[in-house]
Structures are given as C-alpha cells and as structure tokens.
Amino acid sequence: LNLTSSGAGRKQIETIVHLVASAVEGLSPRNVKITDQSGTLLSRGFSDDSAGGKMNDNYSYKSRFERELEAKVVRQIEEVVGHDRVRVNVSANLRFDRRTIKEKLIDPDQTSVVSEQIVDESSTGTRSIPVGPAGVTTNLPEATGREAATVSEFNKKNSTRNFESSRREIILESAVGEVVSLSVSVLLDNRRSQILDESGNSLGRTNTPWTEGEIETIVGLVKAAVGYNEERGDRVFVGNMPFEAAVEEDKASDIEATRVRNKFILDVVRYVALGLAILALIMLVIRPMVQRLSSKPADLDLLMGMPATIGELEGEELEIPTERESGIPSREKILEIAKQDPLKTSALIHTWLRDRS
After folding, report:
1. b or e along 274-301 (b: 16 or more beta carbons within 10 Å of the residue's beta carbon)?
2. How far apart, in whole angstroms, are the C-alpha atoms of residue 88 and residue 188?
3. Comparing C-alpha atoms, which of 257, 286, 274 is closest to residue 199?
C-alpha cells in the first residue's frame, strides 16, 4: 500500500484483507499480509471468525492504557527532575473476559420474626386419668385393682416462632479491560544544576544523585498518578542512575562554554589592539599634522613681509642678510610654503610680474 501521512486504521486494513481473500478462491484471511511502501507490516493476518482482530483490539487497548499512565507519570515527575530526565515503563495486567459474581451476605446479628404459632390448651372439672402400667388391661372399664386419679384443672401452652437473618444478594459484573495489577518502573537521571560565576556565565553543571528522602517523595507521586492499590498487588520501583545522553550533553556544554570563553578573550584582545592602533595613529600621524598646519599662518606672514615690487627690491641694500638676521626664509622654506598654499604664492608672483612690466 502507498499510504499518506495519515496512515491506515485497523478497520481499513481488515477490510482490505477480506477483500483480497474473497477475490482468491480458497484463500483464508489469516494468510493475507499487508505492508506499506516502506516495508512495514501493517497486518499479521485475521482469522475467519475475527478472533485475531479481537486480540489486536485487546493489545491496542492495553498499549494505549500503559502509554497514558506513562505520560501521566512523566508529566508529574518532570516538574521535579527536569525535562527529559526521567524514563517510565508501565506494565499493566488487564482482564478482558467478562465475569459475573453473585454474593449472598447474611447478617446473624440482624434477625426478624418470619412466622409465629402459639397453642394454648386449658380445661376445668373432674376427669379420670389412667393410672398404672400402660397397656390394654389398665384401660378396660372392668379393670380393677387400682383407682383412677382425678384432676380438676389442666393448662397447656405451646409457642413456635420462625426467625430469619438479614441477607443481601450482590451481583457483580466485571468490566472488560479490568486492571488486575500494575507494575511501574521509574528511572531518574542525576540532579543537574547550572554553576554560574559572578558574571552569570555558565561554568558547567553539577552531577549529584537524589537523596533517599527525595526518592521516597517521588515514589509517593508515582503511586498517586497510577492509582496504586496494594491489595491488588501493584508494584512501584524508582531508581536513580546517570543518563549517558546527559553525560554527553555535559561534555558538549563544557566544550561550548570553553569556546565562548575563548571567543570573549579574543574579542578583548582585538579591541585592545584596535585601541592601541588608534592611539599610535593619533600620536604619530595626526598630532604632527595638526602642529604643522598650526604653523602655516606664521610662515605665510613671513613670506608676505618680503618686498612686493622691483623698486622695493632695488631700494634694499645689496648685502643679503642671513635668514636669522633678516627674518626672510630660505629658498627651501619658500618652496615649502608655496606647496602648502599655492593660491597665495601664485598671487604674490603675479604681483611681482605686473610691477616688473
């Protein structure tokens, strides 16, 4: 069968089994096997009287009942031990046959009179009473030898009572799927708590077993969750062992914490190096440049103080003083000033040429 994501139910599988069996003469439904596209066996066959189907129903009910109890226990225990830190297995012994039990209960302490018969006989006057040995001779009228006794009054009373004790008749019919007994096993992982430093960074997790008192409390929670009945013979066991997956998770967590710590150290080193580079740039490049730019006005003023016309140059003395004596910069200084401010330099040269012409 090529199934969709929703799959096929047991009723659908059973219908397909009987359709296939009816299409082939002499083929029994119990000999029909159905698989899906991945090779999973969907049916192990159904007998002609559907006894196999009934067995599958019972097994499905038992499995569903056990899973529901397991889910109840897991939901409650995970609130204490943490998510995915508990494993629960429930084995239920269920009775699927229907039983009728009749009980008659008699209470001897509670009785009532069912019937009563009272006989009361009385007589007055004189009458003879046979006296002597019993026999025919004594009772004959002509018998002599002994006188008959006489009595003047006679009373006789007889009472008969019938009692019946209180009784009750109880008829019990057991439901299909009645719980005969339960067996529950619970496996707890060790206690694992985060260890944080002063900055709130994770340093790992603890790995300590649960105490006996805590395990006893968890046993009580499990019993309450599954409806524990001691008279029924239910059993509950709670054990504590470290999970292998949790140990591997701790190792991965330690590796991740080391990676984060190393990344933090590298970031700090990177920022410190960047700060030192910026400081070196300021001290070695920007600061000298600022000092050089701040000296421009004085150099330009010095250049502007030179003779502006040819007449002024001819009126000067032929002795050319030194830079220190005259305050006029040297040739190299003038070229440097011209490079720094070419506009003013070109204006000054233009003025010189115009005066010369």
Report:
1. eeeeeeeeeeeeeeeeeeeeeeeeebbe
2. 9
3. 257
| Residue that has been written with the tokens 């720094």 in this structure | 340
- Cα–Cα dist 305/194, whole Å: 80
Helix (H, G, I), strand (E, B) or coil at 39: coil
Say how far apart CA 273 and CA 266 lie, in whole Å.
10
When pLDDT is averaged across residues 92-102 and rounded to a whole number, the result is 80
- In this structure, is the dihedral angle defined by the CA atoms of residues 328, 329, 335 and 340, taken in order, positive or negative? negative
Query: What is the three-class DSSP state of 327?
Result: coil
**pLDDT of 223 above 90:** yes
63: left (phi over 0), alpha (psi -120 to 50) or beta: alpha
Domain 60-98+178-242 has CATH 3.30.300: yes
Q: Which two tokens stand for residue 157?
A: 């009373």
C-alpha 17/C-alpha 46 separation (Å) is: 8
Please, is 167 exposed, middle or buried when counting C-beta atoms within 10 Å of its C-beta (0-12, 13-18, 19+)?
exposed
**E strands along 189-252, which residues?**
194-196, 202-205, 235-240
Angle subtended at Cα 61 by Cα 57 and Cα 62, rounded to the nearest 5 degrees: 115
The tokens for 22 are 């009816």
The structure tokens listed for 252 are 């991965």
Q: How many CA atoms lie within 13 A of 70 on its CB side?
A: 16
Here the tokens at position 16 are 């397909």
Token code pair at residue 112: 């009532």
> Best-predicted range by mean pLDDT among 114-128, 211-225, 250-264?
211-225
Where helices occur in the chain by DSSP H, the ranges are: 10-23, 51-81, 136-139, 212-226, 244-281, 287-294, 296-304, 310-315, 323-326, 331-340, 342-356
| Domain assignments of the chain as residue spans, ordered by start | 1-49, 60-98+178-242, 100-173, 295-356
Tens digit of pLDDT for each residue in 152-178?
A: 666 777 777 776 767 777 777 767 778
